[in-house]
Write a structure and sequence with these properties.
The complex is a heterodimer. By secondary structure, chain A is of the alpha/beta class. Chain A is built from 14 helices and 11 strands. In chain A, strand 5 and strand 6 (196-197) form a beta hairpin. In chain A, helix 3 packs across helix 14. The chains are: A alpha/beta, B mainly beta.
């Protein structure tokens, strides 16, 4: 395996971009990424794009805008880990020496999706549980109820990631929301599934993100930003659940626990000591609260205490979602898995502005997605560890 | 009589004049899965037989949805039910919100769960409490 580096990143502002197609959004992010990398789009040797609801062949349509053509291009779908999967597949090609440089994109237009299928909670087509009214909020409401029953979490604890992340999003130029929330305003917002209210849920968003990934040799030849410390993707894992996960506790999702453990082993890091910053899938406030222990940032069972110690805020032991996370950044489904990798790279380069985690050297990006009939748990997690 | 369809293919079938949930029991690893799929999802064995699921179980976890979802009007109580054979099944629970408790005993009911605009009756299942006061967090 060869070392793999991040050469450049780009993204659109996340939010409502009703007049833009996925091709417009993807092209804006891809163009920003190649400009950040300082290379011509003609340099790209392979392209992957993560998306859930785009029209066919979005990656070709997007890269046509930039004149990148006649290279292998693939669109991958893996629920909320679609973008993570695009990054992972590109990482593998570079690590295995198949290509020296390529682009991983993620793109989604929920505005376009809503025009086609109508607004409302996303149902899972053809899923037994979905037909019986299981939705993402109702699944994560069960997780919140478990947090309160088994971990002693209070409503304040459940709301804490939303309060923290909305505050961080205020100063992120790419975020959808620029509004602070309080426990009171969160609980005064409409109830979706007890105890999850609207302001504990990420919004529906349009947007795209792109990252240029390359070999060490290519990096040495082409990196023009000498002030940036070289950021390496030291671990990358796509973790999928199994039939046994049916009977597991949602507070101990094996798909997350094993994925994080494998990625940390691959990168040779101890999550409790070495990881300085995390960007994770906080589609729901309680989901983030449950994730700290599953990612190994603290001991099993200690996630609520870890949050109460303020370890996950800027200035704490391991800030989580200093970008504002999905809750404030927004969540254009396929784009988020690329966006979290970009935000970790930005942190390690020291380019995160007022949301900078001082001295960050190792960061973890995580996405979690899907439910499946017969597996009463999310089915896929994508995890990348970046380091300088 | 109006047309009837099962909400999910193979999820229920008629046995002795009653609609029952049908899963697969694996004769090799002994585990029961629901809904039934081609091979045992635990051990990939082909040696599976269709069996009716237990009709009672305990609530592992539940939540109450306060917005409409598809044909269902709120409040919608949905829960994971642990059956004695070790299978965890998702289903709606028809109960009062204030009587819901983790660990409470529930039993299955089968029948029409919604009616399509053309009058087609959709057959499915839900759970109801066995008795008040069972279980507890």
């Amino acid at each position: 395996m060869r070392d793999v580096y991040v050469l450049g990143i780009g993204q659109t502002i996340f939010g409502k971009h009703d007049s833009l197609t996925v091709n417009d959004l993807g092209a804006a992010a891809a163009l920003a990424a190649v400009k950040d990398a300082g290379i011509s789009p003609k340099e790209l040797k392979v392209a992957y794009c993560g998306t859930m609801f785009s029209p066919p062949t979005p990656v070709q349509s997007i890269l046509f805008h930039l004149g990148a053509d006649r290279i292998p291009m693939y669109t991958v779908e893996n629920a909320c880990a679609s973008g993570s999967s695009a990054v992972h597949l590109l990482f593998q090609e570079v690590a295995l020496g198949v290509r020296d440089v390529g682009i991983a994109l993620g793109v989604e237009s929920l505005s376009a999706f809503n025009r086609k299928f109508g607004k409302g909670l996303l149902a899972i087509e053809g899923d037994l549980q979905g037909k019986l009214a299981l939705t993402m909020p109702s699944f994560f409401a069960k997780l919140c109820n478990r947090l309160m029953e088994k971990r002693g979490a209070t409503i304040e604890d459940i709301c804490y990631p939303s309060v923290k992340n909305h505050k961080a999003g205020m100063t992120n130029p790419y975020s959808q929301y620029k509004t602070e929330v309080t426990v009171e305003s969160i609980m005064a917002s409409p109830m979706i599934a007890d105890p999850i209210t609207v302001l504990q849920c990420c919004p529906q968003s349009d947007g795209a993100a792109a990252v240029i990934i390359c070999s060490e040799e290519y990096y040495k030849q082409h990196n023009k930003k000498a002030h940036r410390p070289p950021v390496r993707i030291a671990g990358s894992v796509i973790s999928v659940s199994g039939a046994e996960d049916v009977s597991y506790d949602p507070l101990a999702m094996q798909v997350v626990i094993k994925g994080a453990k494998d990625a940390c082993e691959m990168a040779g890091v101890d999550p409790q000591k070495d990881i300085d910053v995390v960007e994770l899938h906080d589609a729901f406030s309680g989901e983030e609260l449950a994730a700290y222990e599953m990612l190994g940032l603290c001991e099993p069972g200690e996630g609520v205490a870890f949050a109460r110690s303020r370890a996950v805020e800027l200035g704490g032991r391991c800030p989580v979602n200093p970008s504002g996370g999905l809750l404030s950044m927004g969540h254009p489904l396929g784009a988020s898995g690329v966006r979290v990798v970009n935000d970790i790279a930005r942190q390690l380069w020291g380019e995160a502005g007022v949301n900078q985690v001082e001295g960050a050297r190792v960061g973890l990006a995580q996405m979690l997605g899907g439910v499946l009939t017969g597996i009463e748990s999310p089915v896929v997690a994508g995890i990348q560890i970046l380091m300088i | 009589m109006s047309k009837q369809v099962v909400f999910y293919p193979g999820a229920l079938e008629e046995r002795d004049g009653k609609l029952v949930q049908m899963g697969h029991k694996c004769k090799d690893c002994g585990k029961t899965s629901y809904p039934a799929v081609e091979l045992c999802p635990f051990c990939s064995s082909e040696n599976v037989e269709r069996v009716p699921l237990s009709t009672t179980g305990t609530v592992f976890s539940y939540s109450i949805t306060r917005v409409p979802v598809g044909p269902f009007k709120p409040p919608i109580i949905g829960g994971y039910i642990d059956l004695p054979e070790g299978t965890r099944v998702f289903g709606q629970i028809h109960a009062k919100a204030e009587e819901m408790k983790t660990g409470m005993k529930v039993k299955v009911r089968t029948g029409v769960i919604w009616t399509e605009k053309d009058g087609t009756e959709v057959i499915g299942y839900h759970y109801v409490p066995c008795e008040t006061g069972s279980g507890g967090a």
